[in-house]
Amino acid sequence: MSKKVFHVMFDDEEKLMHSAEGLVEKGIKVKDVYSPFPIHGLDPIIGVKRTRLAIASFMYASTGTALALLGMWYFMISDWPMNIGGKPSFSLIENLPAFIPVTFEFSVLCGAHGMAITYLLRNGTLPGVPASNPDPRTTDDKFVMEITTDENHSMSAEDIEALVRDTDMIELSIKDYE
Questions:
Q1: What's the predicted TM-score (pTM) here?
Q2: Nearest-CA neighbor of 143 among 47, 44, 12, 32?
Q3: Among the listed residues 172, 162, 53, 69, the one whose alpha carbon sits nearest the alpha carbon of residue 111
Q4: Residue 129 pLDDT > 90, yes or no?
Q5: First CA to last CA distance, the chain
Q6: Residue 83: predicted pLDDT
């Protein structure tokens, strides 16, 4: 049995959301939606799980905090103790208030860069990687909903096609894949 992928194109995000709600209510699982901008409220309809990018950001920022404090301890206290304004640096705790701005900035830097790199790796949008977008018009003004028979075992391809044709779509593309 060949597997099929349906690319259902819409010209308006409201039509897409209304159609997605109807299809999900009828038992069809929507694999993905390609749109030129984020559509608020679509994720719960098609069952997209909440992202864990915030947890990753916290871990990157914590690493930045630890590296900043370790670096300042080594550079300013251990390796070459500085005597600033007649106040020598003998411990990290005594000098911690002076190190807070640098620690905060380095934490934000590590958190932001870590999140950006994680986002690019997770989405596969690194330079040189071919685009996975099914239709280039989704980068302009069209919306494409992707449905596969692989994720809808309870329905046949003909049943899915019949339900999809009842929506407010403007174009339907059906392709076989392995």
A1: 0.71
A2: 12
A3: 53
A4: no
A5: 10
A6: 78
